[in-house]
Amino acid sequence: MSILAVGSVAFDTLETPFGHAERELGGALSYFALAASFFARVRMVAVVGEDFGPQDEAVFSGRPIDLEGLQRVPGDTFTWGGRYGYDLNERTTLFTHLNVFENFHPTLPPAYRSSEFLFLGNIDPALQREVLEQVESVRLVAADTMNYWMTHTRESLLQTIQGVDALLINDSEARQLAGVPNLLQAAELIRALGPDTVVIKKGEHGALLFAGEEHFAAPAFLLGMVRDPTGAGDAFAGGFVGHLAASGRLDGAVLRQAVVFGSVLASFTVEDFGVRRLRSLTRADIDERFRAFERLTRFEPLP
Amino acid sequence: MSILAVGSVAFDTLETPFGHAERELGGALSYFALAASFFARVRMVAVVGEDFGPQDEAVFSGRPIDLEGLQRVPGDTFTWGGRYGYDLNERTTLFTHLNVFENFHPTLPPAYRSSEFLFLGNIDPALQREVLEQVESVRLVAADTMNYWMTHTRESLLQTIQGVDALLINDSEARQLAGVPNLLQAAELIRALGPDTVVIKKGEHGALLFAGEEHFAAPAFLLGMVRDPTGAGDAFAGGFVGHLAASGRLDGAVLRQAVVFGSVLASFTVEDFGVRRLRSLTRADIDERFRAFERLTRFEPLP
Predict the structure, then answer these.
(1) Is B205 in the A-facing interface, judged by CB distances under 8 Å?
(2) Quick check: B260 and A183 CB within 8 A?
(3) B140: Cβ contacts below 8 Å, ≥ 6 apart
(4) What pTM did the predictor assign?
(5) Phi and psi for A245 in degrees, rounded to 5?
(6) How far apart are CA B181 and CA B175, in angstroms?
(7) Alpha-carbon distance B88 to B69, whole Å?
(8) Can you tell me the ipTM of this complex?
(9) B232-247 vs B252-269: helix axis angle to the nearest 10?
(10) CA torsion angle A62 A63 A64 A67 (round to 10)
(11) pLDDT tens string B121-138
């Protein structure tokens, strides 16, 4: 089953204690689409400028990713610059130039409208609703968002969230959205806003899943080296939604596995700058790390 | 098999967003001993003052805990006051009065010297060595420590650590001791200092185990309410060492289960102030939560 995904494509400048990269292909949708494309066909909806060249397009077109919904308009592509210190959970934004993204409105090609899985990447909640209004029969609407929309367009965000089945956000965002510090309480409050499924991403500390009666906690995969944490959450979403679309099931067992696949994709992403590691990855690598994740977390039950 | 344990017994004043408690029985050893006593007999080595009364003693003597090594000396018992905000991982020390603890030197009653499991709670590493020098045949030496000793008595700490089999410390302490931000790297560097087993406690984010080739990551148990995080790490150590002593095995499977029992005891401890929850706990409660922990973390393997 194919996944319709909307979000940002950008060129990033990245600084971490382990290196530096300029004009690195990024944006939430790039990470999501590459990660999800190991599981199912992805239909991208985004906007790029004239500086988005054939070598950039080739990153996606070499994989099961449809680019018909990728708008190309005059001007420059969205650019973002960020710097991380040794605490890779904290980052400083150096600059944000929206460029062509400033006037972006998602328009779905007719062939996209009957996608069964929809992922609304972190963009203005009003634009997320524009996508929701154009689709016809969706089995699952998954979405990401961020603290900016909670602060500046809370009512609009709440309206969008009502139409979302699975919300994927990080721990500080969950606390801000729900207004409580306890994550179990926060998840239940967020579920009361609409989404039956809430996934709370905690970076190097793993992820939590709340779905119906299902509570699942996963640590992050243990890595000896993290080069660049950019895009980890988006790649997580790609692995998560990707596995759901591939299996065609939405029960607790599949949701739990989807969290592990999300963690696996995130763990690969942070091993190198930008989407580099996602480009060299194979499905065999992913399954091998899923099994390593199993060995990392298994313990014997009581007799 | 019995566990010889040395550490502090104190009266704490505790303030959290969820309440306030004065002259609450505490100190690392109190938490450790109560938690471990659900698994094996515990022999306490500590010092208390004249203000430690029969009702305080009854907290321990009602359980399989030997108090022969509890020194009673003129003066007041160690007292500590701490305050927590909504971020329960951060605390402010309001006061520390060492009192009788200031001149404490552990002396083992003859019957204690042949204990098979030894836990060196967080005290001056020189005192930890005094205990090591008095024991005869120990199968496992487990120890805790803190940032204070890393900063002020590093050489002495390193000397103690050489004689430790299992070191249990928290994540910021592991980073400080090893001098690297990555926890996998930190654990390997610490293992090179002596301990074959390193357990890194991450509070609400779970725990990591490194032992030989064994890597194990466990999330924390999900709680809807944390009233007082004091003593969670000490109760974790009690559950961990307790399960090892009870099973009499030190292989990877038992070490992993011991981490889960540690997490379970920590999760109960934070539900109420001081050692209150540990006092009302039963072994059946512990095993029930171990099984709940299993349900929280299990996922289906790949076909």
Answers:
(1) yes
(2) no
(3) B116, B117, B118, B165, B166, B241, B244, B250
(4) 0.96
(5) -65, -40
(6) 5
(7) 34
(8) 0.95
(9) 140
(10) -60
(11) 999 999 999 999 999 989
